[in-house]
Amino acid sequence: MKHMRRPLAFLLAVLIACGTFGSLTATTASAEEPNDSSMLLYQESFELGQSMIVDESYSGTPQETSSRPVIWNGAAPTQSSGIAAGWLEGYGTTILEGIADEAFHGESSICITPNEGRLALNISKDVNVLELIDGAYYLASVMIKSSQDVNYKVYLRVKNRPSGNPTIFKIPTTQWTKVEVVFRYDAAAAADKGQKLIFEIGLDSEKSKGGAVYFDDLQLVRKIDATAISLDSTLTLDPGEELLLQPTLMPVNATTSITWTSSDPSVAQVDASGKVTALASGTAEITAMASVLTDEDKSTTVQNVLAAICALTVTGAPLPQNPVIVDESFENLTPKDTGVLQASHIENGKQVIIWNGAEKPTGALSAYVNEGEVTLEALVADAADGDYSFRLTPQNGRMAILYNLDAETIGKMKAGATYELSVWLKAENSPACQFTLRPKFLKSGNPSTTVSLTTQWSPAKYEFVYEPDSTTTVQLELGMSRASTGGSIYIDKLMLKRVDRVQSLTLSTEDRYLGVSQSFDLTYTIVPSEMQSAEVTFSSSDPSVATVDASGRVTAVAPGEVTITAATEGAQATCRVLVAEEYVELTALSVLPELALNPGGQETLSIAYTPENATDRRVTWTSSAPEIVSVGEDGTVTAWAQGTAVITARSATGLQATCNVNVTTAAGLNNTQISKTVKFGHTTQIALQENVTYKILAQPAHGKLELTADGAAYTPYTWLMEKDGAFTDQQYTDTAILSIKNTAGETALVTLRITIGKLAELFYDENGWISDVDLMFSEEWLQAIRAELSDPSSVRYALFQNLLKQADKKLLDVPVQYVKPDYSKVTYSYDGNTCETGDKTVIFLTAYLLTKGVSGHEAKNAVYLEKTIQWVSASLSYPFWGTLGYQNNDRAGGHQLFSVAMVYHWLKDELQNVTCTHTMGTDGSSEERFNATVVTYENQPILEAMRLRLWQAGRDMYSRNYDYKIYTMNHLHIRMGGLLAAATALRDAAATETERQELIDWTGMALYKDGLGMSLLMQDGTSQEGMPYWEYGTDWLMKAGFTAKAAFGIDLFSMTQIYEHSGEYVLYGLLPMQHWKASGDGSVLNIADSPRTHYNGPSHILRIIAALYGDTTAQWLAQQVENREIDSVDASIWMSVFFSDPSVPAVQPSNLPTLKWFKDLDYVIARSDWSGNEDLLLLRCGPAGGNRLTSMAQAGENTDEIGAGHAHPDANHITLYSNGEYLLRDDGYAAKYTSNHSTLLVNGKGQVGEGDAWFATSRQIAANAIPKVVKAESNNSYDYIVGDATKAYSADLGLLKFERNLVWLKDEKVLLAVDNVATSSVAALELRWFPETQSVIQSGNVFMMRGNKNHMNFYGFTRNGVATAFTEVPVYLDSGNPTTQSQRGALVQTLSGTDWQNAVAFSWNDSNAQLADVKYLQGENGVHNFEVNGKIYTIDVTHQTVSVQNGTLDVEPEYDSTDSSIATVLLNGERWSEFDPETTQYVLDRFWKTAELHVEVFPRSPVATVTTQWDNTCPGTITITCESADGSNTTVYTINVTNSQNLLGIANAESTITRDGYDLAWSYDGAITEKTSGTGFWTVQGLPTVTYDLGAVSRIQKIDLALHNTKSRDSYYDLLISEDGENWTAIVDDGTIPATAALSDHHSTYVTVVDNVELTARYVRINLRGNGNKKDNESSFNGIQEISIYGQPLYTVSVEGGAIENPAR
User: Fold this and answer.
1) Phi, psi (5° rounding) for residue 1062?
2) pLDDT at 1099
3) Predicted local distance difference test score (pLDDT) of residue 36
4) Which of 47, 600, 613, 662 is a Cys-bridge partner for 747, taking CB atoms 3.0 to 4.6 Å apart?
5) CA distance 1607 to 1642
6) Beta bridge mates, 1595
7) Is 1400 exposed, middle or buried (0-12, 13-18, 19+ CB in 10 A)?
8) Exposed e or buried b for every residue in 510-525, given b needs 16+ CB within 10 A?
9) For the purposes of burial, counting CB atoms within 10 Å of the CB of 1667, is it exposed (0-12), middle (13-18) or buried (19 or more)?
10) pLDDT per residue over 1231-1279, tens digit each?
11) Are the C-beta atoms of residues 1293 and 1313 closer than 8 Å to each other?
């Protein structure tokens, strides 16, 4: 906003009143104009026609400065202005605009937009013209503003001397801010400077990027200090009145700043100019404070504070407060015909925002582009409110609109109040994104929500608590959640309003003991205080124990424990009441009255209660002098220093007892101090005195201290820096305190003072730089390993064979080739899929190293060397190792850095004469940048290429990870593992001190981040990322750990002990052993995003865990994994060979608990047994990042991102697995929505953190939305698990309780579940259960499900308004596009109400086995009774107990026990429409093309027994027998199967090209899909070879083929047949299927390609060769909609989907 000039008289008054000339620290500028001419010595506003002149040739497109001289865009300074600009080499580019629309004073300013560049303005003035006085102090100031939030600084420097010129740095904000510098004028120094005073304004020395910075209104004034300040002493106002207070400063021309405060802002507020606004009746003191700075350069020292106070009285009715802060419908923009629509974009690092249809807004509105291009249209005639709206149309881009609140509007907002941000939205043509609402009032971590878009105008709302930090601005950001292409988003009606809602409710007590018939009154406090009158309701969890009335009076009824809940909308609190049969009041308590200790002494005080049988014995302990004597919760006192202290024990009822502790020095011991200097990261032994005992009283802050038999061992951590960023190498000091105790019982303190050496000291010895270090392992260790391989019976030999087998499988593999992108279609170059190149390089390298010189492996050794060179050369052929923001800076970078470093280190001799083609670049973000930065070196010596590349990629990895702080996420571990390997390998290539320091810095960063990451991982061995991601990260942490150990002697494993319990994590997290597979459902229990197969390992990880901790179970489990070959394809098996310890025996565990509660992540894994074919039950109900990290974050100890983006909002979700298949499923790697899971929705809403591709951990922590497992018990009869997910939901949903009670009857294969749900008001409650199978039939109130190996019944017992149905519900399974809905069948239960105790049961068994029946009877007060196999299981959800007794329930069964009829038959998963339960004889003609027909049968009675006889012989007979539950009736159904068409079944199919999400089985499912895009048909890009296996040698007579989308184009193919899959005969060579438009209007149509033949074959192969004008073109898309093969089998074989040799291998 531009400021208009005001009359000089008013300006002088404001200057005197407000002290415009402020202190050195930057202050937010008011709207006032500059100082009057009597005090103003110089002013520069960069105005056109004055100091700036327009460049008439300027095209309107700014050019970057990347070399000297500087390019001025739009305007340049006149010669007389003294303004010049300088660009600093060695940094990035910068755009300098001499005329910018943003202005604080006048009409324009100067704008600098950096792209990692550094630029400064120099304004030179003649000191004689300024008439400066030698020795006098002056104030220079400049106004600054940024276009968006930035994290770099700008500075103002006054240069009038050769060096030491005063400078002030400041981070700019989006509001005009003043930066001031105090300086002393030195005439002599100025003479040396040519009588010039130079003002330097610029960007600081750090690389700056993002946003633009504006500079305006440079001023110089004489520094004149105030000596006194006065103000009217009293003032009376009415609510709503405003008055500008005018203080008087002496002298009147003083330039001292004034700040204003109000003692009670609820009565009256005062702004920065002294304007007072009365709000409500009361009194307040308004204080004007003038802080006088000392006379010194760059002064920040206050030498005097002057203050004046005005006593304000506000009388009258309180001011009505308008809750609406912002109400904007975007109607008032100035129309402008902009012609052809243009997209906003980023050009050379600068935002180019184009407001199509309107002039650029000059007020609160602005916009920015995150990436790509987006067309922004204003004044669009489609509105939710008024006439107009905005429309965003992305072209692979992402954009946001900002609404900037001015200071007056911000002044209306109240810290701590709740506000609702809302905007109306509408989508058109399905944009592939969601929409984010984000109020920005914090420097970082601003709250936000992401909502889905609909095709109708609808409001999106988000509530947040306004708790600003030092940031003085507020922006409302409305933007796309991710980059998108296609579709449009309409935006209208923005509102921000205060919401008067309860934020917290606190009760007067959390615990209380009562006797029967006793009462007490619960009182409460509500925040904010204005809501104290909100309605609060009280309830008792068990009125039979204690009741509570409407006023909060609690009355005990019977012995027991009860929870009293006080609830209001948005908040609740609880009080635990323990009722005794007879309450015995505590009348007194006593402790030892006197205690004498020496420093270091400890004693636990015990309490005597009077009477001894007092009911309430709770006590708290305090010390009057904790620095002398501290006391713990259990009454243990510790003496620290001489003196006395009073220890007080205070009862819950207010009684107290005291102990006087006197601490004196022992006669035989003195406090001592031990000083020790230790190496960075190295364990050091500390000798301690003998014949005494020691105890650690205070652990060190920067290391680990342990007592040993010989004294103590201290290990400094590798994460010593106070904050992340570039590595800082320095000495650190640490302190620990021990107590020493002699045989006489005397004690004293021993203080350890530790000095930790620099990391650099490990890089030098007495001979200087150490260039020869080990990478991962030493040559000596390699030789020792080779020696062990001579024994074929050894464990190491077996592991070695596993590695060779893995390497030999890859001998025919070809490295991924880099393809330069088509930049006309994409705006990036991505090569993250090159990770496997690095992995395979190391596999071949280690195979070569281990076979080198080993008899019998000479030939293979040469092959392994050749393959190593081939694969490392591929790495060097890639111009980037991960591009754009991840260039050399993520997984691809880490993998390649490690593999190239390993080859460079270990093969220097072998590679002396090897050359390669080396391609290296620095920027793949555009065609222009690609061509400018990518260089190819032909025939470069490969060692030189590797050196160059390791330096380049290592520098990228280091510099781009300063602020990457997701310490527990696998991506960081991969990055740092690669960086540490590169730093180690390059030790012999560091020729200069600069290069050597770089390697020290790289090493320091890797040890800092990896060490800190290991220290923060879950202490119980689990991972917030799930097992496969844990394997991935662990593999790289182990690589870093062994690198640190080999090169530096630093043992990260013993330093953190982080994997001590991880073997147990893997053991419980694997599926039953009999069902392990390397693919498909794999071997991993699916949790959250966790894949079902392994990512890296786990056998080598288990081997290393066994070696590190002597874990015999881990050694055994590794052996099982190896035997079943379920390791990931490129697993680091070589690490097993090098780092396993064969001396640790492999011991199969016995008597393992079947239930394991992992308490950090709060999930419970229960098994029926350890047979290898056991059932599994999983309940998840914990914080996404685990309890420890979450608590740390909430306490401010670790505020960085926890790294739980792969977690799901799924508290109380359960997974059930049996007989090799999932019964209740997880959604896998998917968008993060509660609605995808078997848990609760409230008013259609899920849990905090949902709604995007990644789980929003920070939102969960900020909202304290922390669910928990309450109970997990196991016995011979059942497992009982309780999860409390209440807090997982947003408080504004009014959810008071969501407790899930699970009782698993393992022997009976029955799961009983009771959900205890309560809300503060009537809500739409919905429980979902997601079965894996979609074959579900309802019979009465029972739902019968048939899977591939199991059948299961679901009982929805609770009625009373509960509706239960199996129906398709919308789910969000596409993590890449979290707004995309798909449908999934679920058992859905709904209720509209406030209290819901919902009882259900699951009963399952093998497909041909009898299911247990379940009956149910609801009791009173939370009691639920279930009958299973003659036993009654009673679940009391109030007290969370389970009891069992023999007996039966007198209830009607859910079914007819005499019914033996069949309800439904499914054929290959589809309902057989011709089936009639009353008809028992059928003829079924073959229609299926699969080798087998899968028959699923559902009886009418869910517990009737069904057997199906069908051997899949066609012609043949299907016989279905159904026996009633009571055995009284049997019905037999006979289905005669014919094959009139002579269809041959297809047992299996394979293609040389695959495509995620496209199933080749769709090509023989019998359905031609009319779509030309989407799924349901099989297509791939490229020229695939498809092979169909008939399962047996057959006589083929006819083949019909429907290729994809043949209506308007010719399609080309070859057709071949084979009996053995190796020898092939061409039947159709270079065949063409002409366009089929003449045959059918369908996009794809059957065409007979072979007819009336007698061909003998088992395999049919089709080479797809393109279509239209793309014959034999690899870019073409080819697909098979359907194939039908006719004939007869020549003989029958067992169909198992036999293996086909892939022709591409």
Assistant:
1) -75, -25
2) 97
3) 39
4) 600
5) 7
6) 1656, 1688
7) buried
8) eebbbebebebebebe
9) buried
10) 899 999 999 999 999 999 898 888 888 888 888 899 999 999 999 999 9
11) no
